[in-house]
Design goal:
The structure is a single chain. By secondary structure, the protein is mainly alpha-helical. Among the domains are: about 40 residues; about 35 residues. The chain contains 3 helices and 2 strands. Strands 1-2 form a two-stranded antiparallel sheet.
């Protein structure tokens, strides 16, 4: 029985050491949180406090024009005029069905309608 009592005392001592360790960790965490909150406004991250890069409207236009040119070069069948990308595309080739294909489709459709009418009469 004494071995059980000793084990219980050791477990309780280990628990108190662990509790004190957790309390120390909590204090360290709260200290770090308080330091972090004083350096930046609440609810903002470090990324949000960086200075914003200001670009003039003229520079933005130049950047947009350059990007349009890059996209135009990347596309096939495009042509550049006056430094602005103008995509010239022909209309897609119109596909036509052969007479035999049209007859097959019409026959299939007639069969479908006949089945539907038959089902309606049966009901």
């Amino acid at each position: 029985m004494s071995g059980l009592i000793n084990a219980l005392q050791e477990l309780r001592a280990e628990r108190t050491r662990a509790q004190s360790q957790v309390e120390k960790l909590d204090q360290a965490i709260s200290l770090l949180v308080s330091l972090n909150n004083t350096s930046a406004p609440k609810g903002t991250s470090h990324k949000a406090t960086r200075p914003v890069r200001v670009i003039s409207a003229a520079s933005r236009r130049k950047m947009a024009k350059a990007q349009k040119l890059r996209w135009a070069k990347a596309r096939n069948g495009s042509r550049l005029t006056k430094g602005v990308a103008t995509v010239v595309r022909s209309a897609p080739a119109k596909r036509t069905l052969s007479a035999a294909a049209r007859k097959k489709i019409a026959a299939f459709q007639r069969e479908r309608w006949a089945k539907l009418k038959a089902a309606k009469k049966a009901a």
